[in-house]
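Rather than argue in generalities, we have chosen a single entry, letters for residues, whole numbers for local backbone shapes, without further comment.
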Amino acid sequence: MLKIWGRISSINVRKVVLCAQMLDIPFVRMDAGLSFGVVNTPDYLALNPNAMVPAIEDGPYTLWESNVIVRYLCAREGRLCPSDLQTRFISEQWMDWQQTTLNRASGVAFVQWIRTPETQRNHHLIAQSVEATEPLFALLNEQLQHRPFIAGDQLSMADIPLACEVHRWWGLPQTRPSWPHLERWYAQMRQHPGAVGVLDLALS
């Protein structure tokens, strides 16, 4: 059975769990990271020398980096990984954008609102994060204006990390603009049976 290492409070672990559930892959998840520890033990470092979550064990095969794991599981199952070359790389493009651009902008506000005690919270950093993040969600909203899913007409691996990113931003105690196409898409993602226990969780 697939083993997923990492606490569900991590956006990167949520990506892998959401992917496995959407693909109907049986798995067991072991808490690791932050207060759970584990990540600095010799056994875990043999799985992921970066001492971060997630990591997976698929039999003797191990892998780390959340979006890479999503790609691997989709390719393994032959589902959600577009067979058309150009569509596949549109998916890859948006997955990389989530990790390198959107996550970097939005993560600051998340850390301040959710992981920082109220007395230590820096609202200037939150404002900077909001200023950097909102144009990116506007761009994603535009991408979804004429297509039901991120990469086109069909649900693909690209939708998984971006749904987790939206889940995290939507969960922050702050106002946001109206992005109707993004809201329509995210509502559809939340209705997927695989979203239970992931996209319905409170942030922590």
